[in-house]
Task: inverse folding
């Protein structure tokens, strides 16, 4: 381009110099008419050539300017695509790494940074970022074989979790490897819960069925058994059938609490508590335990009265079952737009290592006592699911041999103004 411009300028300048020189020579009479004509033709040819070269150069300049503008536009579009891809990757709930052949990180999305709590991982090795030798081996294997790698891995840093990892390259010869990690910790935990639940249900059903079978076989083998023995075994069979019915009923209640939407309306939670206490007062008297309510006469919340009754009955009956002497007190208070229900007992208490598990299905602090009192091991699990379905929470504080306090926090809901008017 520069050479062509120089040539164009030289031609135009030469033509202009020739014309000026001819004009001077003609003025002094140094040129003949024929020589002048020839010179004029040559000068005109040079000027015309210069104009042609100029037009060509101008056209080339416009073409180059167009290409430059197009290149800038493509660069802008490329940057926009890069930003869009980054935003897409950052919006995904999967950790994504891009690694070079030496397994150094070239790119990590937001989820990857959060998952491994490593700021600015670019340029660092995948092992340094994740502290996972298995991930490093996956990247190396993907580069070595060019094949897609997939493994389920357990991570210990920064917290224990389970992830489904995939590694693949950009072709052959590979220059980059892509690594994705989908966290499946909750999925595996739910699978274990399901497996434990099935095992527990099987055990809980098998125990009374085994007892029924044993007593029935005894009666069959002893057709002339004493009437007293027959009556005792028949009563035992009825008790075991009742126990099976309780388990089936609690399983249905638990299933409804987990899957069905809550139908809320005005609920006087104070009246629910007082009615539940009245239902269990006879049981408390038989066990020579005190049972009382401490709270206002009326507290309106937005809830399902039937499910609230289930919550209170389960908590109070559980407290009575695990209290040898003393009393059970149910208190009700308003607290920051919520209502707080405390069920406190003076019972055997719960060891600190067992507290995190008390709301699990079929978990019993004292398995022998629970079965002796007719418990199914599902009561507290039902409480937890009903309360959480109402947008609340449940917790427990306990000391071994000193008693326990179960606390339920429930939102008042849209009836908060009505609750205030009842004061």
Result:
């Amino acid at each position: 381009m520069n050479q062509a411009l120089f040539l164009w300028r030289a031609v135009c300048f030469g033509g202009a110099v020739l014309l000026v020189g001819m004009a001077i020579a003609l003025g002094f009479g140094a040129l003949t008419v024929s020589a002048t004509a020839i010179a004029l033709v040559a000068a005109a040819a040079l000027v015309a050539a210069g104009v042609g070269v100029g037009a060509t150069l101008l056209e080339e300049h416009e073409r180059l300017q167009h290409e430059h503008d197009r290149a800038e536009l493509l660069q802008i579009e490329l940057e926009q695509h890069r930003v869009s891809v980054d935003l897409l990757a950052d919006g995904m709930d999967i950790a994504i790494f891009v690694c070079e052949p030496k397994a150094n990180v070239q790119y990590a999305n937001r989820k990857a940074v959060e998952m491994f709590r490593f700021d600015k991982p670019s340029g660092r090795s995948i092992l340094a970022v994740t502290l996972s030798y298995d991930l490093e081996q996956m990247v190396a294997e993907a580069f070595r074989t060019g094949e897609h790698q997939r493994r389920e891995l357990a991570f210990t840093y920064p917290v224990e979790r389970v992830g489904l990892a995939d590694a693949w390259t950009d072709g052959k010869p590979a220059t980059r490897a892509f690594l994705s990690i989908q966290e499946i910790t909750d999925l595996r935990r739910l699978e274990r819960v399901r497996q434990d639940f099935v095992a527990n249900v099987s055990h809980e059903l098998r125990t009374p069925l085994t007892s029924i079978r044993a007593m029935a076989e005894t009666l069959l083998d002893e057709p002339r058994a004493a009437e007293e023995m027959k009556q005792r075994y028949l009563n035992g069979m009825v008790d075991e059938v009742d126990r099976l019915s309780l388990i089936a009923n609690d399983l249905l209640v638990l299933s409804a609490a987990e899957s069905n939407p809550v139908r809320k309306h005005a609920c006087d939670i104070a009246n629910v508590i007082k009615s539940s206490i009245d239902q269990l007062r006879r049981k408390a008297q038989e066990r020579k335990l005190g049972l009382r309510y401490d709270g206002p006469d009326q507290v309106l919340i937005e809830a399902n009265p039937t499910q609230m009754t289930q919550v209170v009955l389960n908590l109070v009956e559980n407290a009575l079952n695990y209290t040898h002497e003393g009393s059970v007190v149910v208190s009700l208070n308003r607290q920051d737009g919520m209502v707080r229900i405390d069920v406190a007992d003076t019972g055997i208490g719960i060891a600190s290592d067992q507290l995190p598990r008390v709301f699990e299905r079929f978990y019993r602090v004292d398995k022998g006592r629970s079965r002796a009192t007719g418990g199914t091991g599902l009561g507290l699990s039902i409480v937890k699911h009903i309360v959480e379905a109402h947008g609340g929470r449940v917790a427990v504080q306990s000391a071994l041999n000193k008693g326990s306090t179960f606390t339920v926090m429930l939102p008042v809901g849209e009836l908060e103004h009505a609750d205030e008017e009842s004061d």
